[in-house]
Amino acid sequence: MALQYGTTLRNAKMNTINTTLGVTATMKIFSGAVPANCAAADPAGTLATINLPASPFNAAASRAVTKNGTWSTTGSAAGIAASWRVYDSSAVCQMQGNCSTDLVFNNTNIAIGQPIDVTTFTLTSGNA
After folding, report:
1. 3-class SS at 48?
2. In angstroms, rounded to a whole number, what is the distance separating the alpha carbons of residues 75 and 41?
């Protein structure tokens, strides 16, 4: 039998994300592929850095959290966004993913000075 958690526990786990990230978390967008894990070196081609809100995610509901507030910046380099990483207040990578399925940008073809907005980002807890 697969491990299963109740909704209350899954919501509580998801709510710890904001605490773990701290109030000065950042997201970097890269042209390089997603690394094997968060402990690996950053991918090549930093395209932009977003300073996230003090609480990047809304409170969990139905075992999921959604982005809180505005996540936006401008491009610092030109390229096609392929991967992203979120770093905690100590600049340690805490999550990463690809730019085609894990979150939604207004445009993944980034130019220098171009506005970049994360329009949709939802994290859902597993083990239902």
Report:
1. strand
2. 21
Burial of 109 by CB count in 10 Å (0-12 exposed, 13-18 middle, 19+ buried)? exposed
Instruction: Give dist(CA 49, CA 77) in Å, integer.
Output: 10
Distances (CA, A) of 96 to 2, 29, 60: 25, 10, 20
Closest CA to 71 of 60, 83, 59, 55: 55
CB-CB contact of 95 with 88 (8 Å): no
Tens of pLDDT, residue by residue over 60-90, are 999 999 999 999 999 999 999 999 999 999 9
Max CA pair span of the chain = 51
Distances in Å between the Cα of 61 and the Cα atoms of 9, 33, 39 are 11, 31, 29
**pTM confidence score:** 0.93
